[in-house]
Specification:
The protein is an alpha+beta fold. The protein is built from 15 helices and 25 strands. Helix 2 packs parallel to helix 8, helix 7 runs parallel beside helix 8 and helix 9 packs parallel to helix 11. The site of ligand EPZ has 24 residues, from helix 2, helix 6, helix 7 and helix 13.
């Protein structure tokens, strides 16, 4: 296909100053007191889609990825793939990526700054081109977000790595299979190494690999491209590398974090919410915690229904790598714990600083104190509306849930954080009966809401 045949995707363009300012002025106005009920059809998983997009670079043929959520991070990754030389169109949830032309080796700082997950193109690029120059991803509100496991793993596969002037220079005269033990089951490191290993001559074994469902989804896509992979979803993944990969068609798995977020919105409002599109086992420990709180949870064929049957009970929670309790549901869960009749302890084991939302939740009337990796959540608390600032993606979702319960109106500023990872967030909440209004930068209320 020529460039002319690849129409420009709608929506997000490279973030110029103007669109960034508009982004940052967006907020969600929530009027509390409504009981949420109904069904949500889940979008494709953000934390799978971004990696599948990077993996498409491994073939010199077009690939198609379906059920891709229309969220800011996906548009950023579209910008990244185009900056690297791929042709991309994105229509109605279907991404078509053609990386067959000559590819650039440089991932620009501006895009990596906008989304640190861009580091996930490093493995595919060194696999495909034998070299990559990637801007060092910055930290973010939830921690320094190091990449030492990624770098040490690529070195094990024979890559040479220089870090200078804020860029990572990766070169290789041919990757070679190796045993790569991870100090910690890092999701991103597992994914980068899994993709790089498909081009490494011989056998690679990733030990202490991450086991998230998104890893399994990535492995399925790679196998449909012709890769030989065994053990994805376990802590030891074996890859027979060195074969050329071809294009493929793949549908992204449903977003389990989106599912947990809306189930918690229903529970917090004393409601009855069903999410559709995912296999319940991927949220097993989270669902067991809901049951321990006194929530009725019914698992069906690719559906989960959660109903609050009465007062919520306090429970203690520790976040862990999958299949442990997902750190991406920790902030939202603290809102439900703030309504429980008693004190709960939340321990954050995955990220260094994932309690940034606590101060804002306390401004709404929560009673949470933190010390290091622990948060003590006292309840039940009567929340009251106020203006609050989302510190990050999941913190923003948590503040919206708190607003659904708080007396009066809550304005959640920094909605651009939420729009990075939740497709149609306000419309989906309104579809469950919430009184929510999206307010654009300095503009009038618009979008969903009764
Ligand atoms: C992925 O981040 C997700 N992001 C995160 O979701 C999720 O919270 C996280 O996995 C854990 O499940 C995407 O998939 C885009 P890690 P990632 O590497 O890959 C340390 C959301 O809200 N570490 O498993 O960055 C790191 O500092 C986001 O959707 C190193 O020390 O997670 C962190 O403390 C937030 N060195 C811990 O490991 C490394 O080389 C977990 O990181 C890599 C990681």
């Amino acid at each position: 296909m020529t460039q002319a045949q690849w129409p420009e995707p709608p929506g997000h363009d490279a973030a110029g100053a103007a669109s960034e300012a508009a982004d940052r002025g967006r907020s969600l106005r929530v009027r509390g007191g409504r009981r949420l009920e109904g069904e949500i059809v889940l979008s494709g998983a953000k934390n799978s889609a971004l990696k599948l997009m990077a993996a498409s670079l491994l073939a010199d043929e077009p690939s198609t990825i379906r059920r891709v959520p229309r969220i800011a991070d996906v548009f950023t990754m579209v910008d990244m793939l185009r900056a690297l030389g791929a042709k991309v169109t994105f229509d109605d949830g279907e991404l078509r990526i053609d990386p067959s032309g000559p590819l650039n080796e440089r991932a620009p700082y501006e895009l990596v700054r906008r989304m640190r997950a861009s580091i996930i193109v490093m493995g595919p690029m060194v696999a495909r081109l034998g070299r990559a120059t990637i801007a060092m991803p910055g930290g973010c509100n939830i921690g320094p977000r190091r990449i030492d496991f990624h770098i040490r793993g690529l070195q094990k596969l024979g890559a040479a790595i220089e870090i200078e002037h804020g860029f990572i220079e990766v070169t290789s005269d041919g990757l070679r299979g190796a045993v790569v033990p991870l100090d910690y089951p890092s999701v991103g490191a597992t994914e980068n190494l899994l993709m790089a290993a498909t081009a490494a001559q011989g056998t690679t074994v990733i030990d202490n690999a991450a086991r998230e469902p998104e890893i399994v989804d990535l492995a399925k896509f790679l196998m449909s491209m012709g890769a030989s992979i065994h053990g994805a979803g376990t802590s030891s993944i074996e890859i027979e590398g060195g074969h050329a990969l071809h294009g493929a068609i793949h549908e992204v798995i449903a977003d389990r974090i989106e599912a947990g977020t809306y189930l918690l919105a229903g529970v917090a409002t004393g409601g009855d919410v069903t999410v559709r599109g995912l296999n319940p086992p991927c949220l097993e420990l989270f669902l067991n915690k809901l049951r321990a709180m006194g929530v009725q949870v019914d698992e069906g064929d690719r559906t989960i229904r959660a109903r609050a049957l009465g007062a919520l009970r306090p429970v203690d929670v520790s976040t862990l790598p999958h299949p442990g309790f997902a750190t991406d549901l920790q902030a939202q869960f603290m809102v439900a714990l703030s309504l429980a009749e008693g004190t709960s302890i939340v321990t954050e084991n995955v990220f260094e600083n994932r309690f940034a939302v606590v101060d804002e939740l306390n401004r709404l009337g929560a009673g949470i104190t933190t010390s290091g990796h622990h948060a003590v959540v006292s309840g039940p608390r009567q929340l009251t509306g106020s203006v609050v600032e989302a510190p990050d993606l999941r913190g923003g979702a948590a503040l919206a849930i708190a607003g659904l319960v708080a007396e009066g109106v809550t304005e959640v500023r920094g909605l651009h954080h939420v729009d990075r990872g939740y497709e149609d967030f306000d419309a989906k909440l309104a579809g469950l009966g919430a009184d929510v209004t999206r307010v654009e930068a300095g503009g009038e209320a618009g979008g969903a809401g009764p």
